[in-house]
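Dear support,

We are seeing what looks like truncated structure output for some complexes. This example has two components. We would appreciate it if you could run it in full and send us the complete token output so we can diff it against ours.
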Amino acid sequence: MNTRRSFLQKLSAAAITFPLISFEDCTNADQAGSKTYDGPVLRVAIMGLGGYGTRVADAMVDCKKAKLVGVISGTPSKVKAWQAKYNIPDKNCYNYENFDAISKNPDIDAVYIITPNSLHHPQALRVAKAGKHVICEKPMALNAKEGQEMVDACKKANVKLLVGYRMHFEPKTLEVVRMRMDGELGKILFFQGLSGFRIGDPTQWRLNKQLAGGGSMMDIGIYSINGARYMVGEEPVWVTAQESKTDPVKFKEGVDETIQFQLGFPSGAVASCLSTYSMNGLDKFYLNGVNGFAEMQPSTGYGPIKGRTHKGELTQPHATHQTVQMEEFAAIILEGRKPVIPVDGEEGLRDLRIIDAIYEACKTGKKIELR
Amino acid sequence: MNTRRSFLQKLSAAAITFPLISFEDCTNADQAGSKTYDGPVLRVAIMGLGGYGTRVADAMVDCKKAKLVGVISGTPSKVKAWQAKYNIPDKNCYNYENFDAISKNPDIDAVYIITPNSLHHPQALRVAKAGKHVICEKPMALNAKEGQEMVDACKKANVKLLVGYRMHFEPKTLEVVRMRMDGELGKILFFQGLSGFRIGDPTQWRLNKQLAGGGSMMDIGIYSINGARYMVGEEPVWVTAQESKTDPVKFKEGVDETIQFQLGFPSGAVASCLSTYSMNGLDKFYLNGVNGFAEMQPSTGYGPIKGRTHKGELTQPHATHQTVQMEEFAAIILEGRKPVIPVDGEEGLRDLRIIDAIYEACKTGKKIELR
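Here is the complete output from our reference environment:
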């Protein structure tokens, strides 16, 4: 029987849980504030006070299990502003030179790295060495080799490594995953992911190969890679990919503008995906199974996700992704909670292996076999 | 100014016309019957009285410029039934042995070939030799070589060769093409076509390599190929493709179950397409331009097409595709009308060249350059 109960039984057997609590607790500050919570709290420092760092900080105001307590930044004026806004004490403020000293700070449990991609690897190694849990924005690193080193370093330091896969807790996404796991879609045949937007300011770090490690694939294409994996529920065994560029001035050597890529899975299911920095609002997932389908658009944006399946509209309520993510990350670190879709370093590594293969496929024109 | 007028001016300059009349005249029999028409009529014999042949015959009842007057079939009982249903005289009935004698029949102008794919080529050559206009269901032939021979034969015989591209007259499709031609979508960046259905009876000719010449690509994938071309408005310069098979019993050697293929266009636009015989109801087009988009679902089915653009829902009325097609084909043959999207042998040939390249790309794993 494909019932919610059978699904929950499976989950229970696997010791994984849906973040049901969070959706109730984290929808707004008033609600969170009105409840008493005296359990353990994950005390987080954010490294990198840019646009996304600010988004995470604002979202964390509504968390009860996670709390922003520190900052790491190279810009003193930003540190000051954040201290004022989030009530952060001087002793929890660091810069990129001195943050190794965080090892001696008993009031910080974890560091959320939200810096340009190429910095994730060296910074994560330093945070791990400092004995703090590492939360890292995606892509976790520039390639699988770096990613593996991060996984190894965190293991050695006995700290957790979590990657900022906010969609792994998004209610409509999880409902589709539940349907797939419960067999409601039947055998999965096809996934399509279109991930892209038209990138603005040509001087931003995302268009700098040294800092970004690539182009659209590292930033937005990774959503289709990751989505293909959690939607299909398998790991791909082959990759093909084709790069195309219409603006070689804006998108320099090594910065991919548009890449189409295809994945083949052990079951015979295939995925067809697009990653682009030159098309507006491309944010669609489509999953096709023998007995049904799911389509989501937008599928990974910050705002409410919209979607439908063969059973009808998806109606699960929206909650701020970053709030739920941080609440769940705290539960994973503090309570050993296991999410339905992994968010650990190994998960980040799986995406990086595929990114490596995609870039190799673009370069060689060959089908790349994955182990 | 991107107005309807400017678009019509362009059309007028190009001596092409939208089938505006047909939509009014061909929606139902009563309407057609209530109008007097005393212009020239294209007298058509249908070759191949199967499911699609029947659909065309029924649709032609509502035409005024085209009339079903003859049949060519290997099954006498079918011939009898059609004679009764469509009032076809004995002298206009042929079988596959004797239909060359159609050359001596002054009451038939054209033959619509609606037989298994592999028969199109030899039959078209015979029809051309008999001096009758050739209308051929798609795919026009099994490969570009055969297609070229058909084009040459019809040219030599001084008869027209038209291919059954019914979507080329579909009002919502034409509105999107108009928007693209008028610049309303801006520079075109991406087309996505998903074409497929779950094929039933494993004994049907469509799953027989000898008769079908391939699998899903020859039957339904061609819609995405053709759609990519008329939606993007360019001819592709490269093709990559990946075949996958989950049921090698049903889909034997040379009969493709699922093929993903990608096209690159001179402007830098790319297309990502899927052709499959194993997924239900996959019938989606998506066109992305710098200034807008269009999406259609269903995009090529017989029923009403549905779609929307950045400007809103497409509301052009549905008319039976086959009725409009035959009315337009008659106008092309009898009045020299030029359709917005070509339907001649050269058009069919362009799709066949791409099909050849797709099969080659699947076999070699290589990117195939198209002249």
